[in-house]
Amino acid sequence: MLIKYLHPSIRLTRTLTGRLATTGWPVLGVPKHSEEGRRIRTLVRASEGFSILSVDYSQIELRVAAELCGDPGLVSAFVNGVDIHALAAHRVLGAPEKKEDQDESLHRLPAKAANFGYWMGLMSKGLTEAVHKAGRLDWSANCPGCKFFNAAHDPDCDSENFFEEYNRQFPEARRFQLERRNHAERTGTAYGLWGELWSLPGAWSPHEDIREGCLRQSHALPIQSGAQRLIKGAMSRISRTDLPWARKRGMSVSPILQIHDELLFCVENGAVTDWYKRVKKTMESVVEWKVPVVAEGKCGPSWGEQKKIEGI
């Protein structure tokens, strides 16, 4: 059997948010939900007697956003383990409170698309396009503003109404966005959780598209960068304390790569449980926030054949 090792070139300083970038084999861009992506991921296989373990932060950008804005409803949801998409669907769309009672197409698709897109500055037209791609074509179906640029939105536009109600239900979320946009307009900069500072001179641009893009970045960058700073802090601790701990116990553990909010390891089968417990504890204790940080693991013979680790 031919074994080939592919090593992309990793670029550490190519993105504003601190995310890694690569040239060569596009390992960071291999999709995980499509059938083709899963087949490609199965090519990343562990040697006999070993497994591929991935540990990732659960909804980390939403948790960072809740910590930054401090909205009581969002913070309480994460503290109490409430499904954040179910909460948005219940409060904003009037869906049943429990996730299992909600309709996937009617409630969870728009709630999930908006929950992530809201913090990145997604507009009503973008939300409609995201919901349509997920299969719900009746959402804002007749709204001119969701079909054409610079057209007015219909009073009954589902996306417009969703965002208006979201802002009413979670007022501190909108306050945070407006505060960061106002700061960018005054100073031409944005700032993050750990003192990061970004120059955004485009906030003063006379061109609407450039100006609006920079103003969206003023509240999106702190969230995305906050998530990356968190996982890099975890990587530092794992390197300094957890890997030496594993070696002293004779465990064979090899870090592979950080991919967005996920860490990949090649671990001997007999050490998977102990190593996962150790890494999970480290990742969840990097910061002490009002919002709990949660790490979850999956394991399997390859990157594309992993099952969720339960009960730990």
Explain what this protein looks like in three dimensions:
- Helices cover 46% and strands 13% of the residues.
- It folds into two domains: 9-60 and 228-308, 2-Layer Sandwich (Alpha-Beta Plaits); 83-169, no CATH class.
- It has 312 residues and is α+β, with helices and mostly antiparallel strands.
- The model has no long low-confidence stretch (mean pLDDT 90).
- The longest helix has 41 residues, at 208-248.
- The chain is globular, with a radius of gyration of 21 Å.
- The chain is built from ten helices and nine strands.
If strands are numbered along the chain, what order do they take across the biggest sheet?
Answer: 6-7-3-8-9
Order of helices and strands: EEHEHHHHHHHEEHEEHEE
Low-confidence stretches: none
Helix content: 40-55%
Determine the mean pLDDT: 90
Radius of gyration: 21 Å
Total separate domains: 2
The count of DSSP E runs of length 2 or more, i.e. the number of strands, is 9
CATH class of the largest domain: Alpha Beta
Q: What is the fold-level CATH name, i.e. the topology of the largest domain?
A: Alpha-Beta Plaits
From the coordinates shown, what is the CATH architecture of the largest domain?
2-Layer Sandwich
User: How large a portion of the residues is in β-strands, by DSSP E?
Assistant: 5-15%
- The dominant shape is globular
Count the helices. How many? 10
Biggest β-sheet strands, sense, barrel: 5 strands, antiparallel
Termini Cα gap: 36 Å
Structural class: alpha+beta
